[in-house]
Amino acid sequence: MSYMRSLKCRECGKEYPKEALHVCELCFGPLEVNYEYDRIKEALTRHAIEKREPNMWRYKELLPLDGDPSVGAQVGFTPLVRAKNLGKALGVKELYIKNDAVNFPTLSFKDRVVSVAISRARELGFQIVACASTGNLANSVAANAAACGMESYVFIPHDLEQSKVLGTLVYGATVVSIKGTYDEVNRLCSEIAGKYGWAFVNINIRPYYAEGSKTFGYEIAEQLGWKLPKHIIVPMAGGSLITKISKAFKEFQKLGFVKQTDTRIYGAQAAGCSPIINAVKEGSELIRPVKPNTIAKSLAIGNPADGYYSAKVIRESGGWGESVSDEEIIASMKLLAETEGIFAETAGGVTLGVTKKLIEQGRIPKDESIVVCVTGNGLKTQEALHGKLNEVTVINSRLAEFDELVKANGKEYALKA
Ligand SMILES: *Cc1c(COP(=O)(O)O)cnc(C)c1O
Ligand SMILES: [Zn+2]
Fold it and tell me: Model-level pTM?
């Protein structure tokens, strides 16, 4: 049974049928899925959710499908880690990592949006799925399309990390690399969607796709014992995830699942691509596009589709935003790995680096609950760390050589009697 009523323009409120539409024909505003919340409130309780399987579909009443998902039944319910060591390093009392570096099946939060988008595309009768991607979306579209037997086309900028390209090809997707930035890839994809009529998950299926990100927020609330954190730091590319975490928290308030309404939402971008942060800092409603230049390629969108709404979410929540350099990104990837044993991708370095900065600036207090959103896996962005870690030590398989090594490192260990 579905609780999805219609698509609705975020600007003028005009309602549309639940089809592959994404822009309002009256005002060009973005369309968003509109639910029957009164009916959801009658049908759904916290207790009912708790009894369900640990995956994102435990919130299915709040997701935009008419029937059951056709792919991605195991996606979501990733760990919310109480990060005591990292908290100590940052001097804060209550710190958590929401860890989508281990999301199923392609190790980023994109599996949440893709399982919804592809399932919806199938309900709408599409045969071919496609996407414009900064890397993780490519992996997820290719994998999930393969899992439900659909053909997929993946369009990427030419300078992506090797693992992200290989981790797309392996599923049999047709990968098209464009000589240009993500924003140029995206523009081409809009044209292809118009001409070939395929389901581009983040273009013509975007209203459904974006709803999948809400589950990241629902899970945080449930895993905190049906509470919202006081502060949450979210990485931003197109700016969809941050707006949907906000929507998730508001929906849980509306349904009576959580009480607080005072979560401050902070945005994180790389200094080499920070169009949304620039607008937040300038107090401007206008997002000025930039040309990306950063190792955080998954976040390298210079003209973010939801930039305006992201800045608004941040402003209205009383949050703020920051950006960090490539050096700070790497330092934070190492800090997270060394303190918590979590290997996040460059986007995780961005989010943690920004968190650190905001705590140092006194914008985030040290004695309130903080959630840091880790959205992708470090194994996919290994290039960023080449030459930045300790060297491997090579010796022959002789005990004497190991003894020398210990000595050379200036270490002294008690030997077995
Ligand atoms: C896509 C992506 C994001 C941000 O997504 P938006 O919803 O476009 O802002 C964050 N982290 C990672 C690792 C991503 O791949
Ligand atoms: Zn409109």
Answer: 0.97
